[in-house]
Design a protein that fits this description.
This protein has 504 residues and is an alpha+beta fold. It contains 20 helices and 8 strands. The protein folds into 2 domains: 283 residues, 2-methylcitrate dehydratase PrpD; 140 residues, 60s Ribosomal Protein L30, Chain: A (2-Layer Sandwich). It starts with a strand and ends in a 17-residue tail after the last helix. Monomer.
Length: 504
Amino acid sequence: MKLHTVRTHRSDEHLPREEELAWKVAQVAADPVAVESEVAEMIVNRVIDNASVAVASLSRGPVVAARGQAQSRPQADARPGRAGSAVFGVEGVHDPEWAAWANGVAVRELDYHDTFLAAEYSHPGDNIPPILAVAQHTGADGAALVRGIATGYEIQMDLVRAISLHKHKIDHVAHLGPSAAAGIGTLLGLAPETIYQAIGQALHTTTATRQSRKGQISTWKAHAPAFAGKMAVEAIDRAMRGQTSPAPIWEGEDGVIAWLLDGPDGRYEVPLPEWGEPKRAILDSYTKEHSAEYQAQAWIDLARRLGLEHPELRNPDAVRQVVLHTSHHTHYVIGSGSGDPQKYDPTASRETLDHSIPYIFTVALQDGAWDHVGSYAPERAGRPDTVALWHKVTTAEDAEWTRRYHSEDPAEKAFGGRVEIELADGSRIVEEIAVADAHPLGARPFARADYVKKFRTLATGVLADAEIERFLGLAERLPELTAAEVARLNVVASGLPTPPEGLF
């Protein structure tokens, strides 16, 4: 890996195109370096993981609505090389940008797929829907799809390692637009010039504020990354037609760094693979065993264990207070440090509750389990004993856990913390957890069998048994799939809700 210094340049400074970050990213995307077998295997895992959570969300409102929008755009002139794309849950082929949109919402709706956290936050699996949609539309085979996905993960995660967006209240999908465009560029074998223009357009159209993840969180939370993927598809199309983009998009005097991020004095060191260096970033990401914000994963595991070992903790009358000592991010984004009263509101939306660590810790403690539906049900959130205990749970930033959160050492990087529970009788229970059980360094690291189990579990009752086996049979052979098989890398369900009417 090579570090590239990125900063704002005045208009009267000479910044050669070769020194722009967008050009350097385009060079990485254009590099035909082979995908290592270990990386290809993990890509298979994440394709299965994405399908798992998409299937589980097929009947949820945002997914039904997005699917309806895609279904109103059937591929009218399907032909070789422009065959249209599949939409999760239904038959037929659709315009690729709308398939990317619908599938992106389905993948993101339950907050249940992979994550990578560094200077910024990310769900790099969000790259898969737009890259897959374009692969199906253009008749790409499995090997090309794997190459594209490897690039998408690499670019998003490299940007996430170096450039903080949330510090300036910019939503994290601003790193996803460029990465998805780069991944599609790799998939199609496009020239660096074309990829460069698409990256600039994708970034320019996908910067938005973090209000989508603040206060009463709305259904847009699931749509935001899908929008970034859709914009990446459209940016590639425009760039292929010879259209250009604002430049230099990051470094310009009126560019992203100058006005949205750290300003004219901002400086970043962005790591990117050198020419011929394999793209291995996906191996540093991690998936979720539980349907909740990633920083909640370890806390769910600890709470489940504490509830089983100390059942008295489930009774709010027995507990005086619970303090979760944790990282800056956990405290201020999903903890009491956010100042959001909605995080303690039993009538709050599911999107809000899955960003409330006081709620999540309480329910996991009382139930000894976590369910992607039942744990968020209104009747579960409103249970009087839960509300009473929930309001006794607060968070506090701990400098050491913040340091470990930002550590570059994989063996030290942590997303948990220390819980201190004071009981009504004056006794105390203190426990800590660094990473989730499913983390690569956790008690039960996720492996292929776990991804397959997750898919089977979430698909049961939604898909026919034969459809479950058909999809898994394709997904596990992903690198060897023909173009015709990639076109069938989808699932079809029956009895799905009818999409609501809109403009289209």
